[in-house]
Amino acid sequence: TAAAAVIACTLGLTATGCTYGLQGTPETGKTMIFALDQAEDHPSYIALEAFSDRLEDATDGRWDIRVYPNAALGNQQETVQLVSEGSVDMVVASGTLLENLNRDFRTLALPLLYEDIDHQMAVLSDEEILGDLFTSLEEPNNLTVLGGFTQGERHVYTKNGPFTEPDDLNGQKIRVQESDLMIDMLSAMGSNPTPLSYAEVYTAIQSGVLDGAENNLISYMTTGHNVVAPHVALTAHQVGTDYVVINSEVFTGMTEEDRQTFLQEWQATVDHHTQMWVELTEEAADDAEAQGSTFTEVDQQAFTDGLAEMLEDELADPEVRELFDRIQNYEG
Ligand code: GCU
C-alpha cells in the first residue's frame, strides 16, 4: 500500500521511489491517494480508475492513483483540508464548497448560468475565460485545480409528493451541500434548506429528519436516494461542477515530462467522464422509473422567477456580473 511504501522509504528499506516529501526534488513517482465521496458505479470513480491505469502505463508504473470511494477518507470539506495539508494527494470537490476560498467558484455555480453540459464543459476548458481560477488556491491553500467534471442538471426529490410549485416546497426540509449558495438557492425555490454532508443524506431522509434532497439523477441512483425519496421534480435548477484538485507540491514535484503525461491523461479523463455522463444519466432515469420513482414536470416559470430574484442580488456586485455575463454569452 502507499502507506507501507512511505514507511519503507522513511526506514530506508527500499532502493527506488524514495522521494516522498523531499522538497524541490522531482518525484520519481508514487501512488497518489485520491479521496472521493461517490460509489464505485458513479462515472467519477470509473473515469478516475481508468485515469490511473493509463497513467501507470504511460509512466512505466511509476505514477498511479488509488481512489478511496464512498467518502472513506472523510467528507468533501474534510478531505479538501487533507489535500491542502498533503496527507491526501487529490480530491473531487463540489464547486459550492470552494466558494469560501474564491468567490468566483460561487459565480460558476449560480443558477441559470449554463445552458447545458456542452456549454459548461467548453467554459471549463477555456483558460481565457477562467483567468487564474484554477491556480488561485495555490497560495495559501496549496491546492491546484486540474479542471472540472460535470455534475449535470440537479433536481429536487422528496419523500412525499409529487409537487410542481415553489409553494409546495414551503416548510419542506431539503438537504443541501454545506454551502451558502445552495442554502440561498433552495430558499429562493421555496424550501427550507438543511446543509448536511453527502454520505449522511440517505439515513436523514429515511428517518424523516429531512423531507428530501437535490442532486443529479446519477447520484440519485448511486446513493440509493431513490429508495427513500421517490418523487423527482424536474427543477433543473443548477448545472453543477465538481473540481478535481491536487496538492500543489505533488503537482509541481513531478518532472516536466511526467507532468505533461499526467495532464494529457487528465484531459482524456474529462472527455471520458463527459461521454459517460450523458449515457449514464439516461440509464439512471430508466432505472429510477423501473424502481418506482415518479418524474414530474414543474412550473418552470415559477421556479425561475424565484431564482432570478436571488440572482439579481448576486449580480449587484459588478465583478460577479462581469464574469457571469461573460460565461452566459460565451460562444466558444
Ligand atoms: C454530486 C457531486 C458531489 C457532491 C454531491 C452532493 O453528487 O458530484 O461532488 O458531493 O453532489 O450533493 O454533496
Please provide a written account of the structure.
The chain is α/β, with parallel strands linked by helices and about 325 residues long. It has one domain (about 1-330): D-Maltodextrin-Binding Protein, domain 2 (3-Layer(aba) Sandwich), CATH 3.40.190. The chain is about 45% helix and about 20% strand. It is built from 14 helices and nine strands. The chain has helices at about 1-10, 45-60, 75-85, 105, 115-125, 125-130, 180-190, 200-205, 215-220, 225-230, 250-255, 255-290, 300-315, 320-330; strands spanning about 30-35, 65-70, 90-95, 145-160, 175, 190-195, 210-215, 230-245, 295. Strands 1, 2, 3, 4, 5, 6, 7, 8 and 9 form a nine-stranded mixed beta sheet that branches. Strand 5 (about 175), helix 7 and strand 6 (about 190-195) form a beta-alpha-beta unit. Helix 2 packs antiparallel against helix 12 (about 255-290). The longest helix is centred in the last third of the chain and has 35 residues, at about 255-290. Residues about 1-25 have low confidence and may be disordered. The structure holds alpha-D-glucopyranuronic acid. Alpha-D-glucopyranuronic acid binds near residues 76, 92, 151 and 219.
